[in-house]
Every structure is written in C-alpha cells, then in structure tokens.
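Inverse folding, one chain.
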C-alpha cells in the first residue's frame, strides 16, 4: 500500500510538471479507462500493485524525457559555477542520476545541492546517490 501511494504521488508530480494529462482530455480518458480495466482485471491487492507499476513506469518515462528537454537550463543552473560537473541530458538517464553524479564528483553548486536535498526529502534518504546509473557515461 505504501508503494502504491508513493507511486501515485510520483505520477501526480510528473503530470503536474508536464501537464500532459491535464491539457489533454483524450489522455485523461485513456488514463481512467486503463485504471478501471486494471481494477476489474484482478482482485484489489493485485490491482493496486498493477496500478502502482503503471504509475511508476509513467513517472519514470517522464523523468527521462524531462532530463533531455531541460538539459540546457539544468546545465546552466547546476554546472556553470563549478569545475567538477556532469552534464544533464543524456538519453536514458534520469534527472536524479545526473544530480547524484554531480554530487559524487564534488559539485558544490548551491542550487544543485538544494535540489538534491529536495529530491532526497521527497523521494527518500540518499535518493540522488542511490539513483546513479553508472552504465551511462
């Protein structure tokens, strides 16, 4: 149940940022149809797990997309005032991974450190460092 609530909150945050489902009536209808289908497909417990996976995957895909879309502002905000940095915007990498790599490199940009603290507070202790995707260089 905790995972389900966390996944729902994560998806809501991602949708708020992108406003995809809010601006698109078709997107909202498709989301509602998908949720109803998942709820009646199985029992409540299995449905909640399936919906949780659905929300988690949706939020993850949006995170990947926003890392690419916002690479220029993120790089300007987080990587210009320091010598040790890792650039945002690589395909297949999450924002949290880029933030974590910057922290690991010793990036002392105050905005980056504040953003990392916000992510750690919202998504769990050490989220940025735990989210590092070392397979992406």
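Residues assigned per position:
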């Amino acid at each position: 149940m905790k995972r389900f609530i966390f996944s729902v909150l994560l998806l809501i945050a991602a949708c708020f940022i992108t406003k995809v489902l809010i601006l698109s009536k078709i997107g909202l209808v498709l989301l509602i149809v998908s949720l109803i289908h998942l709820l009646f497909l199985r029992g409540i417990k299995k449905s909640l797990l399936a919906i949780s996976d659905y929300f988690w995957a949706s939020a993850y895909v949006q995170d990947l997309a926003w890392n690419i879309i916002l690479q220029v502002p993120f790089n300007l905000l987080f990587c210009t005032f320091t010598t040790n940095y890792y650039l945002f915007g690589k395909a297949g990498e999450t924002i949290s991974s880029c933030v974590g790599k910057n922290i690991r490199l010793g990036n002392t940009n105050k905005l980056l450190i504040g953003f990392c603290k916000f992510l750690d507070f919202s998504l769990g202790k050490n989220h940025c460092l735990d989210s590092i995707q070392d397979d992406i260089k």
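Helices lie at 2-18, 20-23, 25-41, 44-69, 71-79, 95-105, 110-123, 127-130. The mean pLDDT is 81.
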